[in-house]
Design goal:
Helix content is about 35%, strand content about 20%. It is an alpha/beta fold. It is globular and about 75 Å long.
């Protein structure tokens, strides 16, 4: 236990002071048991401005922050490709890591980060590694998890998730030269907007065994990455899944249907409705003598306690408490970030190769395609100053 731990305080550094970094700093500065000992950004004026505002020390290189600030833990909020090298450098120094989503751009990089963590953990068994999947704290998703894990739906047969409420304007994409490029961001809606949805899918239903993906590149925007995706999943237990997302639809829909032998659950418009079957539809189908009969079902609106703490600060608070010795689990462990990435990469690999793929798939094949896209890219995306980006507008339930 370091001196800071012994005093009940964790010294934290923040790397990446863009839009999401601003969100993190807004709660970090008010957290108990946290001392922000440094902020870091390659744009010196950003680091200087943050440091002045929050009365801490600016750094312009994450290694300087790691080696000179005396920090215990770091929150990583840099562009996607940089997650991996920054985290690996932190683990090499025994620094606890809370990483923004996605864990990495592709599976191979994610595995490098996880390997670095596992290696560091052998030297420092209490090393903490979390990922910022704050949507797991949302009460409606918590209730869905409870219904599924409790077996209220019985054997699941179909999941259909239409989430087209990720509408983005061209001004959003033009707000940064790195946005929506293969070299700068590594992908589009699956890499930027939907890691939370992909994590939620695997958290609730597990990973599929087969994926068929259909991704449209720059269909609604002047970008070189995907802005509309439809995916079909097959699970080992027979359940099928549909995943439909886009940044080009307004008004959008966020509707999650979960069908099982005991009925259908629909989550939409901040309400969970359970059409509960009186008996198993499998049993009814096998035993009924009436060819056009239906299982009697009852409309039930599931009560959900929405007056609970949610969001980034809850994930960070659990992370800090774990560093201080709490046995309460993290909201999401960093290693779990691999699963959503498997879905994202798998969908794109299927789309690029125009064939259904098995999970796990050849991660080298996807990385090779990605590197070729970067190498061959001649896309020049215009960038514009003045776009108004309020990150709270992007936190989509």
């Amino acid at each position: 236990m370091t001196a800071s731990h012994a005093s009940g305080t964790v010294k934290v550094g923040l790397v990446g002071l863009g839009n999401i970094g601003t969100t993190h700093m807004s709660y970090l500065s008010d957290m108990d048991h946290v001392e922000v000992v440094g902020v870091c950004d390659v744009v010196r004026e950003h680091a200087d401005a943050f440091a002045r505002r929050y009365r801490t020390t600016p750094y312009y290189n994450h290694l300087d922050l790691f080696d000179h600030s005396g920090l215990d833990a770091v929150i990583i909020a840099v562009p996607h490709y940089a997650h991996v090298p920054v985290a690996i450098d932190a683990f090499a120094r025994g620094i606890h890591v809370l990483c923004e989503k996605p864990l990495a751009v592709h599976v191979n990089d994610a595995k490098k980060m996880i390997d670095a963590y596992e290696d560091a953990k052998r030297r420092k068994p209490d090393l903490q590694f979390g990922i910022m999947f704050q949507e797991r704290t949302y009460p409606f998703y918590q209730k869905l998890k409870d219904l599924i894990d409790h077996g209220d739906l019985g054997r699941l047969t179909r999941v259909t998730w239409i989430n087209t409420t990720w509408f983005r304007t061209q001004a959003y994409y033009d707000s940064g030269s790195w946005r929506a490029t293969w070299a700068g961001e590594g992908g589009g809606i699956l890499t930027n907007q939907c890691p939370h949805n992909l994590d939620m899918y695997q958290w609730l239903f597990g990973l599929p065994s087969r994926i068929s993906g259909f991704a449209h590149i720059g269909k609604y925007h002047k970008i070189e990455v995907e802005d509309e995706v439809t995916a079909y999943f097959e699970h080992e237990n027979g359940m099928i899944g549909h995943f439909i997302v886009t940044t080009g639809e307004s008004p959008g829909t966020n509707r999650l249907e979960i069908v099982g032998e005991h009925g259908k659950v629909v989550y939409e418009d901040a309400k969970i409705v359970f059409h509960r079957n009186r008996e198993s539809m499998f049993k009814f189908s096998a035993e009924s003598k009436l060819g056009f009969a239906h299982v009697e079902n009852w409309y039930t609106e599931i009560p959900v306690d929405t007056k609970v703490p949610t969001g980034h600060h809850v994930v960070a608070d659990r992370f800090i408490n774990a560093i201080l010795g709490s046995s309460e689990p993290l909201i999401a462990y960093g290693t779990e970030g691999l699963n959503g990435l498997l879905l994202a990469n798998g969908i794109m690999l299927s789309s690029f190769t125009r064939q259904m793929i098995d999970v796990p798939f050849d991660a080298d094949a996807y990385e090779s395609i990605l590197q070729e896209l970067i190498k061959r890219s001649q896309f020049v995306k215009p960038t514009a100053d003045g776009a108004v980006l309020n990150m709270s507008d992007s936190f989509n339930v």
